[in-house]
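Each letter names a residue; C-alpha cells follow underneath. Both lines appear below:
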Amino acid sequence: MDFLVHHRVGIEGELFWKASQGLYGGIQPYRPIFYSFNAIWVPHIAKNIDAELLAGIGGENIRFYGILNCGGFGCVNYASSNHFMGNFGGGIRAYIWHNVFVRPEVRLYLINNNVEFSSNHVVRYGGSLGFSFGR
C-alpha cells in the first residue's frame, strides 16, 4: 500500500509470503515471509504513466514446519528464523482507465546473516492491478 504525503513522495509498506511450502534441503518444509517499510518516489513520465522508485527496511521470517514448539500460549508446528533486511525496487504504473492501473515491478531484498540459504539476496518480480485515490 502506498501513501503519498507530499506531491510525489510518500511511504509504502508490504507483506508477502511464498504461496506454497518449499522443501529446504529436499526434506524440510519451509515458507519465507517478507515485510518492509519504504520511502517511495513516484515521478510522472508520460501521459497515463508514472514510475515508482522505493527503498526501505524490513525483515524476513522463515518458518520451518514439522517442528512442535510449545510455550506459555500453546503450541505451534513450526520454528522461526528472523533476519533484518534492506530493499530496493521499482515499477511502472500504466493507467488503463481513469484511476485504474497495471504495474509490473521488481524488488531486490538484501538479507542480513541469511545463513539458511546460499545467498543473502532475493529478487522478486511481479505485477498488480491497482486503483489510485485522488490522482
Observations:
- Residues 55 and 88 are 4 Å apart (CA to CA).
